[in-house]
Structures are given as structure tokens and as C-alpha cells.
Design goal:
The complex is a heterodimer of chains A (275) and B (249). Chain A has 11 helices and no strands. Chain A is mostly helical and 275 residues long. In chain A, helix 7 runs antiparallel to helix 9 and helix 10 runs antiparallel to helix 11. Chain A is flat, with a radius of gyration of 24 Å. With 249 residues, chain B is α/β, with parallel strands linked by helices. Chain B has a domain of 137 residues: 3-Layer(aba) Sandwich (Rossmann fold), CATH 3.40.50.300. Chain B is built from 7 helices and 10 strands. The two termini of chain B are 31 Å apart. Classes of the chains: A mainly alpha (275), B alpha/beta (249). The interface between A and B is medium-sized, with 21 and 29 residues. The structure holds adenosine-5'-triphosphate and magnesium ion.
């Protein structure tokens, strides 16, 4: 045991490991450097009417720390407002989609029953719901908030329901029989086999749903309202093409989207140690 | 616990899989079932376990109809069917939880059966971190832990190499003698059947019928090279060959 643990230390294993660590860190940095260089180059060659990376970075940091005086909000507040909408829309979507997916996945009759509805509405881009949503919520005070949450809901709902349903359906029936042979009731089969067995798919559905929900939210904010990062980008454009602000907004959206995804992947690792 | 099958028939849609199967397996006896692939051995076990209802006939445990919920039956599936999301320990305690054991008893029994199959050091491993043989032993522990009086095993050692297979057979014989359970064991290997069984049931194919029901009267521990052992093997081999002819075994 001891010898085995010590021996590789003497060989070139550590060096290989160190090389790998450098690559893991170095390659992403390299890709960012390349991207920024290309950007700088295209600005200098006047290919696009864009601010330089440096100018944009300064604006980004200023927006992050001091905020935009026109709106009296910083980037965190702007993205925070959007995230809150996403949280509401996704919360409702997952709260409905996951139980529905489990039921439909476990019951072939329910599946036949819901199939046409799911398959007709699934391909509709969530943004296509915006006009109808404004009509639906027009009687409420401040309909825009509801419309935005609704669009997020639609965007997040379908990936969650489809993945959950699929996750339940592909569970090996032998697991269910094994549980039953140990004396499990239907309820125990649901809690101890169907749910843990489909959890990987459910989490995938949540991850995709949040990603789409985030995109939908930004897009919905273009159309109406006076809050959120999407609104900020659109308004920066309308008030006179403030390119550094627009790009800063885009970067903020990208970073938040990346963090959301990374957060769910972290959660997947924690919840699925057997994977 | 004695198992009696009386004229058990089973259909999947129009197709008859089992045809008037009648069997008696006495309490504490080890019965091996063998027969060509697709003749309905796994189906028969599912019926006995109460996981499916037979189209016709009666299946009685000590004279009473079977039910999966009773906790009287343990089943080891052809593919193992361990829950990949549970550790070895949690897999073993699963059946105990389903049977509503108290936490203290549950923990003790779990440890006892983990060590019975020699997996104490691997209690926190997930099934995909175990070897094929370990997984089979774990599946055995899971179905034995809640102390069923009848254990059904569906080709549990089919995927093992010859050496681990022999080891597992010896191991199973030991566990069976310690726990005094009635066992129904499906296998394709005649050698395995003669080594393990008190009684060998040979099924024929399409639909599955009882072709022969042979008591094996060999002292234990058994020696594969003993003349009596070899005679039994040849007897059963002959039974299979003259009837099935070209059939895939
Ligand atoms: N759920 C099912 N629905 C329809 N037909 C089935 C089902 N399960 C099994 N069968 C059919 O019943 C027959 C017997 O299957 P079974 O799995 O019991 O055979 P087996 O003797 O265990 O075969 P093997 O030795 O290959 O494991 C096969 O022809 C199979 O196609
Ligand atoms: Mg089978």
C-alpha cells in the first residue's frame, strides 16, 4: 500500500499533473486573450463602430461600482431585478413541471392525454406569448411584471417537464420490481425509486430551464417595463447608442448565465454522488 | 417455507409462455430450475414473487397465496438490479426499511448481512464502484437481510468468470445452510445446478412445461469430480439434448 502510494511521486506523474493544471487554467485565459485581441484589432481597423475593450472595461467597472447616474442603479441591482423575475417564473415552472412530469411519466394514459398539448405548445418560442400575456394580465396593476415572469415560466416549463418525463420513463423497470419484491408500496416506489432514479434528468431539466428562463427574461425586458438588465440594454440603445453600456450589459448577462449554469452543475455533483 | 405451484399457466397477450407448471418445493430445500433461453424461467420467478399475476393456476406459500408486500420473499434479479443511487449499505437496508424495521435493528441487521457477504469494508461504495462479483453478493445481501423464508435467484452468477462463480456457489451453499431458507435458483449451467440443488427442474420451451423434476441425492459439501456428481450431470444433459435437438440452450 505504502509503496504504491509513494512510488508515483518519484516518477514524472506530478509533473504531468502540474502540466495539466497549467493547461486547465492557461487555455481558458488564452481564449479570452485571443478574443479581446481580435476585438481590439477590429476596432483599430474600423471594421465595426465599437468602443475599445479598454473603454468598455472601464465602463463595466464604473457601472458595477458606481452605477449609471441616468438610472441611479448599478449592474448588480439591474441584474438582480432580472434574476428576481427569473426566480419567480422558474419557481412556478418547476413547481408545476416536475410533479406533472413525474405523473405523466409514470402513467401511460396520462402521457397519451397530455402528449398533443405538450407537443403543440413546446415549439412555440416563449417570446411569442408576450402580446397575449399583456392581454391576459391587463387587468392587474403593473402587468409587465407578470408578463415577464410568465414568459420566463413558459421558457423554463417545457425543458423541465420533458426532461422529468423522460427521466421517469427510462428508469429500468427491474428497479421497480426489485423495490416491490422487497415489499415497497406504490408510494415508496415513487419516493425511493422513481424520484432518485429520475433526479439526474430532473436536474438537467432545471439547468436548461433556468438557462432559457434567463434568456427569455432579458428579451421580455426589451418590450416593456423600467427594470432589469434587458431594459437597461435596450434603453441605452434608444437614448443614443451608448455602446460601452450596452456591451457591459451583455457581459453581465453572460456572466450571470454562466454562474447560474455552474451553480446547478455544482448542485448536480452534490446531489448525485453516484454518478 | 414450502412452495407449491399448481397448474400455473401464463400468457403475454396471445402468446403462452408457461403451460400448466406444477411443482412442489419443500421447506428449506434448494431447487434449481433450468431450461432453454426464453422458456419462461424469469417469468416463473416473477409470478412466484407476486410481481405479476399468473393467467391461470395457483401459487401457494405454505398453502396461502403469494403477495409481494409480505416480506416473505427475497428476489435476486438476473441483472442484479441494485439501486445505483444508493451505497452498498443503503441497498442492503432498503428491504429492511420497506418492511418497517426499527432503526436500531435495521442498522444491526444491515451490518450483519454486509459482513455475511464480505462487503463490510465497501459499505460506503456505490454499486458502480464494485466488481461484478461484489455486486452479486450485495444483491444477495439485499434480498436476504429482511429474512424472507423463500429466496428466488435468477441466474445470479451468469456474468461471473468460472473461478468467482465456483467461489460464489460455495459461498451461497454456506449462507443457505446457515439461514435455512427455501431457495429457487435459475441457472443455465448444469454443473452449477448439480452442485447446488436438492432438486432440479428442467423446463422445455414454447410454452414452458416441466420436462423433468429430479431429486439430487448427493452429500454436501459436493465434489464436482465424484462419479455420482458426473452421473447426475450426464443424466440431465441427456434430458436436455434428446428433446431440444437443435434448440438454442
Ligand atoms: N413483459 C413481457 N411482455 C411480453 N412478453 C414477455 C415479457 N417478459 C417476457 N416475455 C416473453 O416471455 C418469454 C419468456 O421470457 P423469460 O424472460 O421468462 O425467459 P427466460 O427463460 O428467463 O429466458 P433467459 O434464460 O434468456 O433469461 C419470452 O419469449 C419473452 O419474450
Ligand atoms: Mg431469464
Amino acid at each position: 500500500m505504502l509503496e504504491q502510494a509513494v512510488l508515483p511521486e518519484l516518477t514524472d506523474l506530478p509533473r504531468k499533473k502540474r502540466n495539466k493544471r497549467w493547461l486547465d487554467l492557461g487555455l481558458p485565459v488564452l481564449s479570452l486573450v485571443c478574443f479581446v485581441s481580435l476585438w481590439e484589432l477590429s476596432v483599430r481597423l474600423k471594421l465595426f463602430a465599437l468602443p475599445t475593450p479598454e473603454e468598455t472595461m472601464k465602463t463595466f467597472l464604473r457601472l458595477l461600482v458606481y452605477g449609471d447616474p441616468l438610472y441611479a442603479k448599478n449592474l448588480l441591482q439591474l441584474t438582480g431585478a432580472s434574476l428576481w423575475i427569473v426566480a419567480k417564473g422558474c419557481g412556478a415552472a418547476f413547481g408545476l413541471a416536475i410533479p406533472l412530469g413525474v405523473l405523466v411519466g409514470a402513467n401511460p394514459y396520462l402521457e397519451k392525454l397530455t402528449h398533443p398539448i405538450l407537443e403543440i405548445f413546446r415549439p412555440v418560442p416563449p417570446l411569442a406569448w408576450i402580446p397575449l400575456a399583456y392581454l391576459m394580465f391587463s387587468s392587474l396593476p403593473g402587468p409587465t411584471r407578470y408578463v415577464q415572469a410568465f414568459v420566463v415560466f413558459v421558457g423554463a416549463f417545457f425543458p423541465a417537464v420533458v426532461n422529468t418525463l423522460h427521466g421517469i420513463k427510462v428508469i429500468d423497470p427491474t428497479y421497480i420490481q426489485a423495490a416491490k419484491s422487497c415489499g415497497a408500496s406504490s408510494c415508496q416506489v415513487l419516493r425511493r425509486v422513481l424520484l432518485p432514479g429520475s433526479l439526474p434528468s430532473i436536474l438537467t431539466g432545471i439547468r436548461i430551464g433556468i438557462g432559457i428562463g434567463w434568456m427569455c427574461c432579458v428579451a421580455a425586458e426589451f418590450v416593456g417595463g423600467r427594470m432589469g438588465i434587458g431594459f437597461y440594454i435596450w434603453d441605452s440603445y434608444s437614448t443614443g447608442g451608448r455602446a460601452p453600456e450596452i456591451i457591459s450589459g451583455i457581459i453581465a448577462i453572460g456572466i450571470v448565465g454562466y454562474l447560474l449554469n455552474a451553480g446547478i452543475i455544482w448542485l448536480e455533483r452534490r446531489l448525485l454522488p453516484w454518478r | 417455507m414450502a412452495l407449491t405451484l399448481h397448474n400455473v399457466s401464463h400468457f403475454y397477450l396471445e402468446r403462452q409462455v408457461l403451460d400448466h407448471i406444477s411443482l412442489h418445493i419443500g421447506t428449506g430445500r434448494f431447487c434449481c430450475i433450468t431450461g432453454p433461453s426464453g422458456c419462461g424461467k424469469s417469468t416463473l420467478l416473477r409470478l412466484v414473487a407476486g410481481l405479476e399475476k399468473s393467467t391461470g393456476g395457483a401459487i401457494l406459500l405454505d398453502g396461502a397465496p403469494v403477495s409481494a408486500r409480505s416480506g416473505q420473499i427475497g428476489m435476486v434479479f438476473q441483472e442484479g438490479a441494485l439501486f445505483p443511487w444508493l451505497t452498498a449499505r443503503k441497498n442492503v437496508s432498503f428491504g429492511l426499511e420497506m418492511q418497517g424495521f426499527k432503526p436500531k435493528v435495521l442498522a444491526d441487521l444491515t451490518e450483519e448481512y454486509l459482513s455475511l457477504v464480505g462487503l463490510k469494508q465497501f459499505a460506503e461504495y456505490y454499486p458502480n464502484q464494485l466488481s461484478g462479483g461484489m455486486r452479486q453478493r450485495l444483491a444477495m445481501a439485499r434480498s436476504l437481510a429482511y429474512n424472507p423464508s423463500l429466496v428466488l435467484m435468477d441466474e445470479p452468477f451468469a456474468s461471473l468468470d468460472a473461478q468467482s462463480r465456483n467461489l460464489m456457489q460455495a459461498e451461497l451453499t454456506r449462507i443457505w445452510r446457515e439461514t435455512k431458507k427455501t431457495v429457487v435458483f435459475v441457472t443455465h449451467s448444469i454443473d452449477e445446478a448439480v452442485f447446488l440443488a436438492d432438486q432440479i427442474v428442467v423446463l422445455s420451451s414454447r410454452p414452458g412445461q416441466v420436462k423433468a423434476d429430479i431429486p439430487i441425492e448427493l452429500p454436501r459439501p459436493r465434489l464436482r469430480t465424484s462419479p455420482a456428481f458426473v452421473r447426475y450431470r450426464e443424466q440431465i444433459l441427456a434430458l436436455i439434448e434428446n428433446s431440444e435437438g437443435t434448440n438454442e440452450w
